[in-house]
């Protein structure tokens, strides 16, 4: 039975006292049973009948639920009638907007878009809120097609001055990769707020356009902490940690306080640069401001301390964490592996398994690195097989690269080569580069030439590969081939990346390149080195000139090897830091055999811990030993 619309209006009766209690009970039953749980127009009509029987006001109906239940049924007009009765002083759009909001923010935003078209079908006039919620649905779905249609509706209805709508449309275009349209709308907007600027900057950063992002950042009339944080994090993402830290210094000068996201971004920059002093200061700031329980900050602190050579500090952070995620465990396992403490990394993985934490792909990269750095071939093979068998993790190219590195370092070059050829995906430069690097260690010219053929196709402008091949030829005494490689580099305009090492003293980063003579302390550095060299020779040190792959006199080779950048940085550190304190040096290339042997001796002579972070790993020298066990 269909009830007439007039039946919604039940006149009040003055003689109801005797049934007042019963009505309240019925009303309560209505509220707790079907009133807030009807799922169809049929059930809604049952609620309507109950309302009539109990003389209850129609206003108790949840109108948003009425709209959602009837929206996509033939009872759409029925819902409109209810809205008109209950909210006669307000347009029905008011209620439909609540429905759109619920759908746009729910699990199926597409329903919000469908409801919008349904509203247009029934001539329901949209307002600015209608457009806002439907555009939000488009944004959640990355639905550019319908987003453009809604943009047209906004223009047609004259909502161009609505800043919230304009910001949402800019966000939609930019997040869908339509940066030209986003920029065009951005420049045409008569009014912009900090949200507008932040949206554009964040999306440009996602496109890795840090220059375009900074151009907007510099033009901002007003910046908030999110503006600064987006730009700092953007520089980190684009591989420019120096710029990130420089901008952070400006942020501090401007008196803007960090939030938790800023802390994470700056710590990540410190990790990339090895800026330990700043990292410690940010750590202290984080603790003072109550961020200690932030798991993401703790994870980034672990990474920062690991990459700055402070493994014990990283372990301390890990142990103090109340809640650990798979990222926490993976960072610590990877850190132990990087520092040559493979057995501890494997023990930590066992502990991780015992507490029921499922590993991810990053965890296994750390485990495979641990095996590679310590030559644990069988264990590495087991971990690689375990990924898919025990955890359902499909190995990615990074995992294949780790196993190639493991096999190659161990001298199993032919097995590594076969493994590469049977990979389920095309090997990249990192994979072939791992094989090439091992060919130098094991002096296999033939396999090196096989690897370089593929590398010339994959990454023809990478100078490192040419340098390694040239060095392999030089070590084999094939000077004509060495000259041929270097001539090829010159013809192809491939320039060799100069080696550099850096050390931070009193908050100032000092960089050295091989043969450095421009540093203000050059004369004192050379003098101190000569003094050290005398002590080293007394302990049996003989310069390993085989690392100088130039066809020059032996005396010149000795001088050349003495001017390696890591040696200059070390001597500078010994001269300018308190006795007994660790010396930490960052290096962009692999440490050579002569510097490795020299640093072991020096660590014992000066009774100092020397930590070197090179391109591949950490070397912690102490008491004439190295954490790598001379396997690197």
- What is the structural class? mainly alpha
Gyration radius, rounded: 34 Å
pLDDT < 50 runs, ≥5 residues: 1-27
Report the helical percentage.
55-70%
How many individual β-strands?
A: 6
Task: Describe the fold and architecture.
- It is a single chain.
- With 632 residues, this protein is mainly alpha-helical.
- It has 32 helices and six strands.
- It has helices at residues 20-35, 41-53, 63-70, 76-86, 93-104, 110-121, 128-141, 144-156, 163-175, 179-188, 194-206, 210-219, 225-237, 241-253, 260-273, 276-288, 295-307, 311-320, 326-338, 342-354, 361-374, 377-391, 397-409, 413-421, 429-441, 445-458, 463-475, 479-491, 522-538, 554-562, 565-576, 593-605, and strands at 500-505, 508-513, 583-587, 610-613, 618-622, 625-626.
- Helix 32 links the parallel strand 3 (583-587) and strand 4.
- The longest helix is centred in the last third of the chain and has 17 residues, at 522-538.
Brief overview, please?
The protein is built from 32 helices and 6 strands. The chain has 632 residues and is mainly alpha-helical.
Topology of helices and strands:
Layout: H1 20-35, H2 41-53, H3 63-70, H4 76-86, H5 93-104, H6 110-121, H7 128-141, H8 144-156, H9 163-175, H10 179-188, H11 194-206, H12 210-219, H13 225-237, H14 241-253, H15 260-273, H16 276-288, H17 295-307, H18 311-320, H19 326-338, H20 342-354, H21 361-374, H22 377-391, H23 397-409, H24 413-421, H25 429-441, H26 445-458, H27 463-475, H28 479-491, E1 500-505, E2 508-513, H29 522-538, H30 554-562, H31 565-576, E3 583-587, H32 593-605, E4 610-613, E5 618-622, E6 625-626
Parallel strand pairs: 3-4
Antiparallel strand pairs: 1-2, 1-3, 4-5, 5-6
Helix pairs in contact: 1-2, 3-4, 3-5, 5-6, 5-7, 6-7, 7-8, 7-9, 8-9, 9-10, 9-11, 10-11, 11-12, 11-13, 12-13, 13-14, 13-15, 14-15, 15-16, 15-17, 16-17, 17-18, 17-19, 18-19, 19-20, 19-21, 20-21, 21-22, 21-23, 22-23, 23-24, 23-25, 24-25, 25-26, 25-27, 26-27, 27-28, 29-31
């Amino acid at each position: 039975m269909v009830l007439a619309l007039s039946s919604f209006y039940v006149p009040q009766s003055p003689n109801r006292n005797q049934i007042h209690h019963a009505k309240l009970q019925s009303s309560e039953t209505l509220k707790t049973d079907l009133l807030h749980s009807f799922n169809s127009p049929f059930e809604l009509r049952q609620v309507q009948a109950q309302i009539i029987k109990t003389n209850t006001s129609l206003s108790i109906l949840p109108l948003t639920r009425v709209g959602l239940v009837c929206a996509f049924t033939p009872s759409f007009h029925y819902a409109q009638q209810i809205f008109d009765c209950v909210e006669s002083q307000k347009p029905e759009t008011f209620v439909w907007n609540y429905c759109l909001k619920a759908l746009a923010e729910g699990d199926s935003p597409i329903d919000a878009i469908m409801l919008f078209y349904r509203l247009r079908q029934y001539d329901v006039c949209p307002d600015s809120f209608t457009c806002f919620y439907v555009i939000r649905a488009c944004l959640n779905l990355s639905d550019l097609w319908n987003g453009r249609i809604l943009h047209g509706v906004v223009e047609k209805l004259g909502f161009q001055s609505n800043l919230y709508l304009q910001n949402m449309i800019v966000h939609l275009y930019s997040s869908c990769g339509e940066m030209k349209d986003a920029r065009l709308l951005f420049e045409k907007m008569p009014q912009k707020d900090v949200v507008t600027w932040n949206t554009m900057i964040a999306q440009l950063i996602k496109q890795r356009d840090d220059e375009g992002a900074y151009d907007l950042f510099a033009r901002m009339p007003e910046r908030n902490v999110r503006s600064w944080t987006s730009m700092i994090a953007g520089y980190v993402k684009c591989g420019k940690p120096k710029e990130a830290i420089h901008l952070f210094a400006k942020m501090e000068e401007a008196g803007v306080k960090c939030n938790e996201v800023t802390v994470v971004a700056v710590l990540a920059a410190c990790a990339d640069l090895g800026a330990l002093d700043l990292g410690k200061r940010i750590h202290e700031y984080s603790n003072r401001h109550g961020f200690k329980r932030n798991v993401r900050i703790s994870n980034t602190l672990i990474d920062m301390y690991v990459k700055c050579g402070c493994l014990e500090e990283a372990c301390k952070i890990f142990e103090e964490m109340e809640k650990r995620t798979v990222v926490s465990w993976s960072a610590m396992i990877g850190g132990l592996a990087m520092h040559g403490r493979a057995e501890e990394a494997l023990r930590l993985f066992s502990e991780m398994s015992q507490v029921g934490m499922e590993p991810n792909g990053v965890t296994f990269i750390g485990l495979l690195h641990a095996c590679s750095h310590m030559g644990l071939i069988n264990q590495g093979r087991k971990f690689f097989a375990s990924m898919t068998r025990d955890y359902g993790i499909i190995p990615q190219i990074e995992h294949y690269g780790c196993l190639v590195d493991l096999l190659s370092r161990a001298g199993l070059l032919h097995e590594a080569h076969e493994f590469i050829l049977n990979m389920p995906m095309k090997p990249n430069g990192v994979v072939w580069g791992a094989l090439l690097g091992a060919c130098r260690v094991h002096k296999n010219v033939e396999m090196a030439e096989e690897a370089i053929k593929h590398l010339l196709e994959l990454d023809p402008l990478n100078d490192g590969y040419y340098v390694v091949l040239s060095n392999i030829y030089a070590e084999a005494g094939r000077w004509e081939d060495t000259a041929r490689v270097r001539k090829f580099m010159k013809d192809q305009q491939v320039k060799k990346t100069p080696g550099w090492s850096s050390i931070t003293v009193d908050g100032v980063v000092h960089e050295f390149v091989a043969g450095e003579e421009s540093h203000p302390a050059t004369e004192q550095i050379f003098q101190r080195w000569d003094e050290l060299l005398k002590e080293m020779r007394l302990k049996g040190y003989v310069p390993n000139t085989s690392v100088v792959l130039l066809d020059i006199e032996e005396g010149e080779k000795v001088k050349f090897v003495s001017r390696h950048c890591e040696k200059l940085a070390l001597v500078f550190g010994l001269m300018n830091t308190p006795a007994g304190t660790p010396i930490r040096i960052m290096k962009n290339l692999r440490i050579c055999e002569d510097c490795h042997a020299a640093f072991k001796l020096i660590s014992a002579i000066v009774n100092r811990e020397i930590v070197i972070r090179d391109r591949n790993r950490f070397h912690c020298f102490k008491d004439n030993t190295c954490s790598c066990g001379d396997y690197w």
